[in-house]
Write a structure and sequence with these properties.
mainly alpha, 11 helices, globular
């Protein structure tokens, strides 16, 4: 039996992606149609992952924590821990909702960060990553459209645990970015990987770091380069999320409520960039990521 979409009356998981946006010339031929009679309905009865998010205090407690982690990371720590937000949110709403809810907030964070790091990036490195990200986003959109809710849950949880392992291996010296990654081809490759993982769970930071860390950029230049590259990838993800039906009227209202938290978090991250040791921030974030990733994998398999 297909799992019903969280707060769309009469909708299942496939409907969540297909019923919101069509009958517009730009989407002709995509198979995505608008049915104004059935897309937005009354919330169903409360369930563990099916409650209306707008009235759920638990949801907002988790959402504020998730947005702050992503925003502080984007503002001051290279975005390397920002991907913890989607797995954390996926504990209280469907994974597709969690990813969809975060994208507009990430775009708000990007604009806030761009103003503070304008033109301080390494354009050569950013351009290579951004080129590959286009292919990665296209692959992510095709993949995302074909999997079930539990499949998305398993993927998001698996990516989270994989990047915890990546972080441990890198900090212990078992894995070091090679100088060989400095070629244009490697930049495009890691950009494609980052584009794919960013699309499915906003987890593009670790693949991008495999390319950027070998460049031995100073702290601020590295941060600025991640800001411009992930501004780009989030921009090109937006129309695909729209076509997949990952935005709703409810999610738009939630985004408006959480937008000030996103701006505040980025400004806090910019301040922390100069004063707070990154190791403390990352230890806490990766611990949370390990817990949430394990929970998502368990839920997907049981």
């Amino acid at each position: 039996m297909r799992q019903r979409a969280p707060y769309l009356s009469g909708a299942d998981q496939r409907d969540l992606r297909s019923c919101h946006f069509a009958l517009t010339p730009v989407l002709v031929g995509t198979g995505i149609w608008l049915d104004p009679r059935g897309c937005i309905g009354k919330p169903q009865s409360r369930r563990r992952r099916g409650a209306s998010v707008e009235a759920d205090a638990t949801f907002y407690a988790v959402a504020i924590a998730a947005v702050l982690i992503a925003a502080v990371s984007k503002g001051g720590f290279g975005g390397g821990a920002g991907f913890a937000a989607a797995p954390l949110l996926a504990l209280v709403v469907e994974p597709a909702q969690a990813v969809g809810l975060m994208l507009p907030l990430l775009m708000v964070m990007d604009v806030t960060g761009l103003r503070n790091y304008w033109r301080q990036w390494s354009w050569t490195d950013a351009r290579r990553l951004m080129t590959g990200m286009v292919a990665g986003v296209l692959a992510g959109a095709l993949f995302f459209r074909s999997v079930s809710a539990d499949g998305i849950r398993l993927l998001v949880g698996g990516v989270a645990l994989g990047f915890v392992a990546f972080h441990i291996a890198r900090t212990r010296g078992w894995l070091r970015p090679s100088q060989a990654f400095g070629s244009a081809g490697w930049g495009v490759f890691w950009g494609a990987v980052a584009g794919f993982t960013s699309f499915v769970s906003h987890a593009g930071g670790p693949p991008a770091s495999m390319y950027l860390l070998r460049a031995d950029l100073d702290k601020t230049r590295y941060q600025a380069t991640t800001v411009i590259t992930f501004w780009w990838v989030n921009l090109i993800k937006f129309p695909f999320y729209l076509m997949l039906g990952m935005f709703t009227l409810q999610s738009a209202r939630v985004n408006l409520i959480l937008a000030p938290v996103a701006v505040l978090g980025v400004l806090l991250g910019i301040w922390a960039h100069r004063l707070v040791p990154a190791v403390l921030f990352f230890r806490l974030t990766y611990f949370l990521l390990a817990v949430t990733g394990s929970k998502l994998v368990f839920d997907a398999l049981t």
